[in-house]
Amino acid sequence: MRLIQFTLCLIVFASPSLGEPRYQIDGNTLTFNMGVPGGPGEFTGQLEYYDLREIGELIFESVGVEVLKVTGPGGSMIAAREIANKVINLNLDTVAYGDCMSACTMIFLAGKKRTLAENSRLGFHKQLVVKRDHKPIFEANKDAKGWEDEFAYFNYNYDRLVTELVDDIKFINSRGVSIDFILNVFSTANDDLWLPSREVLLSSGAITE
Fold first, then answer.
1. Are 50 and 100 in contact (CB under 8 A)?
2. Average pLDDT in the 37-60 region?
3. Which of 71, 97, 166, 184 sees the fewest Cβ atoms within 10 Å?
4. Residue 67 pLDDT
């Protein structure tokens, strides 16, 4: 019996997200864990577009929210960019805890004051293009856009992705992050992760304290 109880304790302490809601307000802090279920849509284990609406409503409906605490593996960059804009417009601080990776870091970098919790990591890479996401876009718009085949769509999408890349670089740099750090981010393959040390994060301006 004691062995079973000890094992259960290990599971609880080894799984910080166990029992944690997707969204939670505690005092002046809204915590968002994209790795656990609880949103209005299908749970995929990552950031989804519906999180934009949910987080926006929680921030505006809850008086006194000053900090967004975030963790997760990333997901929708569209949602990440729009949440980041809300964070900037509301002058919120951000805290990253656990593993905040990919699109999660875009939200984190929007904070006025940016803190990385103890024993936590930030992971960066260039944007991932998922093939299955683009075929429906091509099929739905090929007649209106005059795309004869996937190659014509590729040219259109390439221009869009380069524009987004430039905008992301400008955004990160506007948060006081050094250009050398930004170049490391976008030099990392989209199937890899760059996990800079706390010292590098601090010296580059990615975290502020």
1. no
2. 91
3. 166
4. 97
Gyration radius (Cα) of the chain, Å: 19
CA 28 and chain centroid, separation: 21
Please give the structure tokens belonging to residue 154.
Answer: 């590729």
Structure tokens at 183: 């170049």
Single out the residue of 102, 123, 127 nearest to residue 186, CA to CA: 127
Kindly provide the b/e burial profile for residues 56-93, where b requires at least 16 CB atoms within 10 angstroms of the residue's own CB. eebbeeeeebebbbbbbbbbbbebbbbbbebbbeeebb
In terms of CATH architecture, what is 21-128+178-204? Alpha-Beta Complex (3.90)
Residue 110 has pLDDT above 90, yes or no: yes
Contact 47/82 with Cβ under 8 angstroms?
A: no
- 56 closest CA partner among 68, 45, 44: 68
The letter for the amino acid at 11 is I
Q: 14-25: per-residue pLDDT in tens?
A: 334 457 899 999
Distance CA 11, CA 9 (A): 5
Place of tokens 């921030």: 59
Predicted confidence (pLDDT) per residue in 174-207, tens digit? 999 999 999 999 999 988 999 999 999 999 999 9
Q: pLDDT-based confidence at 2, cuts 50/70/90?
A: very low
The residue extents of the domains of the chain are 21-128+178-204
Rounded distance, CA 135 to CA 129, Å? 12
Q: How far, in Å, CA of 199 to CA of 201, rounded?
A: 5
User: Residue 129, CB half-sphere, CA atoms under 13 Å: how many?
Assistant: 11
Rounded CA-CA distance 95/28 in Å is 12
